[in-house]
Structure formats: structure tokens, C-alpha cells
Design brief:
Structural class: mainly alpha
Number of domains: 2
CATH topology of the largest domain: MetI-like fold
Helix content: over 70%
């Protein structure tokens, strides 16, 4: 019988705590800094626990209408990207799953190969396309560009779910007179809820955290999303308003934290299901 040595267990826990503290410290520092005034923020050596916590930055946050506008734009772009990705990835994944062929395998390989290209390399081509279509300085350009980035990965992911669903269920539905689309919506989609939720959360987080597309395609301050708005409004050429930057960052992180906390088990199940399918 194997007995774990106490020293070995203690060392393992210390290593886990060290790595966890290293990874979580930036989040802690952002949270703590949001409760400091400017004098305390620039103090050296820095204080890891503020002696005089203040809610002034949060009061300014709720009074600043531009921040609320950035959050609204962020929500609009993220929701639009999620809906478009869910619709396109579901149809594409179902087609690749139920109509296997040499051409389908080539398409799946092509979708996977798109993940090798950096987003920076796509910006110039997308900018030219959106300029010709008159979509520059439009939130629709963000929805389309972000969907182009997330659809390939989500298609391959949801295909694994469709592969695990027995074809006999579809055949039974077809015998009962259901069309192919009705079978997909009434039989396949309900059984694929964990996968749909996984790609929905993945897409929403990718769109919520976008910076490069937002800073490139959006010129009007009233249409900017949160990350681009923070960079343009609070990070100037001469001085930075770190108090507001950290406060707005906390406000932007909270929705993602709540989503992950509430749906983490579904996301893990969605990202791992079908992973060993050939």
C-alpha cells in the first residue's frame, strides 16, 4: 500500500499556492488599486493593503456616462457575435458530422489551420473589406470580424458533440415525418446543450475581451467597446488615470467572473466532450 509522505504533500501544496498566488496577484492588485486615491497609487514603496480605502473611483464610474456606453457597446457586440457564431457553427458542424466525405475532411482541416494565423495578420485584409463595404466605424464590423475568428474553432468543437449523438434518433424523427431542419432543431440541438453553452461562453468571452479589432475599426468614441474606450479615455500621452483604469477593469471583469462561476462545469464538459473522437 502506497503511503504519501507528509513532506511531499506539504511541498506540493506550497508549490500550488505559489503558482496560484503568482497568477492571481494581478487581479488582486487591480482590485486593491481601484480603492486607492491617486496619492496612494503613486506611493513608493507601494502598499499592498490601502490604509484609507475610498469609493471615489466607483462613484465617478457611475457618474461617467461614457463608461456605461462602453459597457453597453461591449454587451451588444459580444451578444451579436455569440448569436452569429452559434448559428453558423451549429449548421457547419452538423453538416461536417452528418455528411462525411473527403471534401468534408479537407474543410475541417482548413478550419483547424486558421487557428495558426495571428489575429494581427487578419486586420489589414478585414480593414480593406470593411472599408469597401462602408462598415468602418460600425459595430457590425466588430461582430463580423470576431465571428470570423471564433466560428472555425466552434465548428470543430460542436462537431464532436454531433458525432456522439446516435443517428438512429434522427432516423426515427425522419420516419415520423420531420424534415432535416426540424430534426436538427427539435432533436439534435436539445441534446447538444452542453456543447452549445460551451461555444457560446467561449465566443462571448473572446468578444468581450477584444481590443485589436475595436481599436482598429471603430473611430467614434460613442461606438467604442470597453477595452478600447479605457485605452483612449484614461491612458493619455502624458499621464494615466490608474484609479479609473483599474475601477473600469473591475467592472469589466465581474460579468466574466460571474459567467465562469455559474457555468464552469458546463464549459469544461463542453470543451472536453468528443475530444477523443477520430
Amino acid at each position: 500500500m502506497k503511503i504519501n509522505h507528509p513532506v511531499k504533500n506539504t511541498a506540493s501544496w506550497l508549490l500550488i499556492l505559489l503558482i496560484g498566488g503568482f497568477l492571481l496577484f494581478p487581479l488582486y492588485w487591480i482590485f486593491v488599486t481601484s480603492f486607492k486615491d491617486n496619492m496612494d497609487i503613486y506611493r513608493f514603496p507601494p502598499r499592498f493593503i490601502p490604509l484609507r480605502a475610498t469609493l471615489g473611483n466607483y462613484l465617478l464610474l457611475f457618474r461617467d456616462s461614457s463608461v456605461i456606453l462602453y459597457l453597453t457597446n461591449n454587451l451588444f457586440v459580444s451578444a451579436g457575435t455569440t448569436l452569429l457564431t452559434l448559428a453558423a457553427a451549429s449548421l457547419a458542424g452538423y453538416s461536417l458530422s452528418r455528411y462525411p466525405s473527403r471534401f468534408g475532411r479537407a474543410v475541417a482541416t482548413s478550419l483547424l489551420s486558421t487557428q495558426m494565423f495571428p489575429i494581427v495578420g487578419l486586420i489589414l485584409a478585414l480593414y480593406v473589406i470593411f472599408r469597401n463595404l462602408g462598415l468602418i466605424d460600425s459595430r457590425l464590423s466588430l461582430v463580423l470580424s470576431l465571428s470570423a475568428v471564433t466560428i472555425p474553432f466552434c465548428t470543430i468543437l460542436i462537431k464532436g458533440f454531433f458525432d456522439d449523438i446516435p443517428r438512429s434518433l434522427e432516423e426515427a424523427a425522419r420516419i415520423d415525418g420531420a424534415s432535416r431542419m426540424k430534426t436538427l432543431l427539435s432533436v439534435i440541438m436539445p441534446l447538444s446543450k452542453p456543447g452549445l453553452l460551451a461555444i457560446g461562453l467561449y465566443t462571448f468571452m473572446q468578444a468581450w475581451d477584444d481590443f485589436l479589432f475595436a481599436i482598429t475599426f471603430i473611430l467614434n468614441d460613442g461606438k467604442r467597446t470597453l477595452s478600447a474606450g479605457i485605452a483612449m479615455k484614461f491612458l493619455g500621452e502624458v499621464s494615466y488615470d490608474w484609479g479609473m483604469v483599474t475601477t473600469v477593469s473591475v467592472a469589466g471583469v465581474l460579468p466574466m467572473f460571474l459567467l465562469i462561476f455559474l457555468f464552469q462545469k458546463y464549459m469544461v464538459a463542453g470543451l472536453t466532450a468528443g475530444a477523443v473522437k477520430g
